[in-house]
Structures are given as structure tokens and as C-alpha cells.
């Protein structure tokens, strides 16, 4: 088989319209093959397909079968081995949906978290097995399973599911806090696994809180200082959660890297940059480089604050370039308009990169890791310039994680936060984020 491209044809290829495509495909304006329970595009991009929500949840009859039958290498078989007679699962309560959600995690949630697909056994088998020996991991697993089910459930049901998620996280914290006092080779992997669950919980909780705050601020002529600080604190909490997990990682990196979780932390070599990608990096960086003019001309900003803002922006520029370099673009013979693919305006660049695939999604969060305490303080205060930087980070977050259930519309909320705090008179400061991220 050769790599010779097919001969060029005139005009666009005809295809039928996908009127019933999934939500991620509609959002990216690409053709959906409407394959259920997960369409081909979502399978390729490892994102949560909205068709998944059409699947019924497990009933009691299915649960009784799951605990007694199943191929040894399948999720059902794994559950049969883990939850068989004589195995104690203290994180699952009787007279509750806990066992059902434990199954849900192994069968559905594990698939949605695994990127690349090759690490799916870690989430489907290894971590659920780890939970038996470390109950705080089990409670963390349950917390995320409830959140995942909440994201694909009707609004009325989701509130109760989120409350169950919070219950399990609270149950986990004492055991986690005690274990982290003495990190060893044996407990380093459970601690790191639970820390990942805390980050996912923080995403969901921060999105829920910011959504409620933004809804209450709608229609108000001027947002009050208390709401500004609440929004800022919510945004900063995400950064602090991600910095915490890396704090654990750096302390036991040698153990984790040599253990079963090594595949989950493996980074990927960037592909060779095309001329188009190089140009896109240049165009976006030129725009980002202009942002310091906003605070450098403000006499109320101290030198230390200006330094913190500029440092956070420098890290963001690096993140933009790295994510673009790691994004694998779709083949050139896609159904996109040839004229639009040659356009280098900011909106089109974002659209083209969204159509690509980022195998190394954690690379987006390197920005959070490098943020200084001074910048986080500004973010907690709801500082308008810190919000401008956050809104521009939302672009690359949206680019890498849109369609993934665990981001919980955070990119949209970050832009909306900046918008309500800046007000109409300063809206032009975040024109790019407002243009490319649909609220």
C-alpha cells in the first residue's frame, strides 16, 4: 500500500447531511456516522459521545448476573473476581446504588477516561482491584462513577447523583490524609490514583459552582464584589487541585514510573511540525504577546503583580505552542472547505485544531503547574487581568478537552467568568475567547 494521495477532484464531495449526529460532532461541524453507542469520530478522539446517554443503566437482574458470570478478561469478569464471595468492599453500601455504580465505572467510565485506549485496563481492572486493598481509592472511584452518571442523566436526577459523589469523596479523605503522611513504594500508586480522582471531582464541583454563580449574576447591571471573589476562588481551586496531584507525583515519581501506572503518565513525542502548524503557532502567539499592554499601562498594578501576570502569560504561550505541536491534524482530504483551511484567522485556526486529535491531553494542564502563588492570589481575588489570562487559557482547554465529560463545560464557564467581571466596557480584551468558545 502506498501513501500516494488520490487524484484531485473539482468541487466538494457530496455527502448526505447528518441530521441526527451526536453532540460533539455537531459542535465541531463534522459529519457523524451515527454509530451507537459511540460514533466513529468520538471513538477516534476518545471523547464522550452523547449517544452513550441513550444506554440504559444496569438493573438489579443484570447486577446479579454480573457477579456470577463473565469472561475473565472482560469488565464483567473482573467484577466477578473482585466482588466474589469473601471479598470485602467497604466503600459499597448496602441498600444503595453503589454496586451498580461500581459496575458502571468498570464498563463505561473506565472507557471514557482511557486515553490512549491502550491504558483502558488500568481503569477497568487495575484501579478497581486496587480499591479492595485501599478503601479510600474505592470511595474515590465511586465518587467519579456517580459524577459520570450525573453528566449523562436528566437535570433532576443529576443533583442527587452529585450529592452521592460528594458523600464518597468525604468518606475517602480521612484514609487518604492518613496514608499520605508516610508515602512508600506500596502506597504511592494508590495515592496517585486517588489524586487523579480528586482532580476530576474538582472539575465537576467547580463547574457546578461557577455555573450557579454565573446564573445568579445574569441580568445584574453590576456584579458585586462577593460574587467576583467567589468566581475567582472557584477558578483558582482547579489550579490548586492540579498542583496538588503533581506535588504527590514529584515525591514518588520513581515508584510510579516503575509501576503499573507508568503507562498513564507516559508523554508522547511531538510529531514533525508542518508549515501550517508553524504559522498557526506564530499567529496565535502574536496575539497573546500583546496582552501585557493591558496591565503594564495600569498604575494601580504593582511590579510584583505585573510580573506574576506576565509570567503566567509566558507559560500560557508555551502551552499553546506545545498543544498545537502535539495535535495530530485530520487528513487533508476531509470534507472541509479548501478555502477555509488556508485561512489563518484566529477563529479558523481554533476550528481546524479542534478537528484534530490531542493524544497527550495532560499537556494542557502544564500551564496550571507553572502558575505562581502570586498569580493564584490574583485569580482568587477575581482580578480583571488574571481573568483575561484565564479566558485565553480556556481556548486551549476547549481545544484539547471539548467533548470530554470530565471537563464539565469549564472552558465556557471560564470565559463567562471573565466576561461578567470585565463588563461590557472591557469586553474587547477577551474578544478572541468569546468568538471561539460558544457559551
- Mass-distribution shape: globular
Strand order of the largest sheet: 1-2
Task: Work out the helicity level.
Answer: 55-70%
List low-confidence stretches. 1-20, 53-78, 336-341
Cα-atom Rg, whole angstroms?
23 Å
Count of separate DSSP helical elements: 22
The arrangement of helices and strands along the chain is HHHHHHHHHHHHHHHEHHEHHHHH
Keywords: DNA-binding, Nucleus, Transcription, Transcription regulation
Protein name: Zn(2)-C6 fungal-type domain-containing protein
Pfam family, one: Zn_clus
Domain Zn(2)-C6 fungal-type: 21-51
Short structural description:
With about 450 residues, the chain is mainly alpha-helical. Helix content is about 60%, strand content about 0%. It has 22 helices and 2 strands.
Task: Tell me about this structure.
The structure is a single chain. The protein is mostly helical. The protein folds into 2 domains: 75-264, no CATH class; 275-332 and 340-438. Helix content is 62%, strand content 1%. The protein is built from 22 helices and 2 strands. It has helices spanning 23-28, 40-45, 60-66, 75-82, 98-113, 120-133, 135-151, 155-179, 188-217, 225-251, 253-257, 262-265, 275-289, 293-296, 303-326, 338-341, 346-354, 366-369, 373-380, 384-401, 410-422, 431-436; strands at residues 327-328, 357-358. It has a two-stranded antiparallel sheet with strand order 1-2. α5 (98-113) crosses α7, α6 crosses α7 and α9 (188-217) packs antiparallel against α10. The longest helix is centred in the middle third of the chain and has 30 residues, at 188-217. The protein is globular, with a radius of gyration of 23 Å. Residues 1-20, 53-78 and 336-341 have low confidence and may be disordered.
